[in-house]
Amino acid sequence: MHRASFLGLILFLLIAPGLVQAQSVADPDPQRFVKEIDHFIRYDQKNSFPQKAVLFIGSSSIRLWKTHLAFPEIPVINRGFGGSHISDVLFYYEKLVKKYQPQTIVFYAGDNDIAAGKSVEQTVADFKTFVAKVKKDLPFTKIIYLPIKPSLLRWNFWPAMQKVNQVISNICAADSMLKYVDTASVLLDDSGKPDSTFFMEDGLHLNEKGYQKWNARLSPILNILNH
């Protein structure tokens, strides 16, 4: 092999992993949630929803959260749908976010994104798109970002998840309409690993004790923002 070609091959092999890692992962089909979204729509047609509410939006950590019991003095709307990516929240933004005109949004998503192979950059970019939509349509609405949680099942993804959390923490620190609330570190034990007592048997979803940790972190902040 010609020396130049050989050196070119070596260079490609060295940088190829980085190129592969930088490629975007295709978003999953948002139509897989049609039944769940239709259920929300039918519910809203039969029931009024509170004005100036706190909208909880995101994946299963939102869906399984008994938000109406956790924050009884605050008008809440829970629109979590399990397994969702940030891209799914974006797809259903008009139906699940904008229509409610919330005073505050509590956002938890990105967990499934990283676990599906999406990069830190892609996940952060999707969050930025969400923020931009809210700022355009709901300029007085504050967004509370709950960091991607450390879990037993997805502990191998934690380095990437931490990077997402750190980048978004910096974004929130520079914007008065965004707030980063650390609900991640409270789930770690003294050794810095996920505390199994806060999780269901699947090692991914929080149990009642885990949600109590989240409630304690979030409650005083919501009381300030919504009064």
Descriptive key words:
alpha/beta, single chain, 5-stranded parallel β-sheet, 48% helix, Rossmann fold, 227 residues
Write a structural description.
This protein is of the alpha/beta class and 227 residues long. It has one domain: 3-Layer(aba) Sandwich (Rossmann fold), CATH 3.40.50.1110. It is 48% helix and 10% strand. It has 10 helices and 5 strands, in the order ααβααβααβααβαβα. A 5-stranded parallel β-sheet has the order 2-1-3-4-5. α8 packs parallel to α9. The longest helix has 20 residues. The radius of gyration is 20 Å and the shape is globular. The termini are far apart. The N terminus is likely disordered.
Helix content: 40-55%
Question: What summary fits the major beta sheet?
Answer: 5 strands, parallel
SS summary, helix count: 10
* SS content category: alpha/beta
What proportion of the residues form beta strands (DSSP E)? 5-15%
Organism: Caldithrix abyssi DSM 13497
Pfam family, one: Lipase_GDSL_2
GO molecular function: phosphatidylcholine lysophospholipase activity
Signal peptide: 1-22
Chain-wise SSE layout:
Blueprint: H1 3-22, H2 34-46, E1 54-58, H3 60-63, H4 67-70, E2 76-80, H5 86-91, H6 93-96, E3 104-108, H7 111-115, H8 120-137, E4 142-145, H9 158-173, E5 178-180, H10 208-225
Parallel strand pairs: 1-2, 1-3, 3-4, 4-5
Helix pairs in contact: 8-9
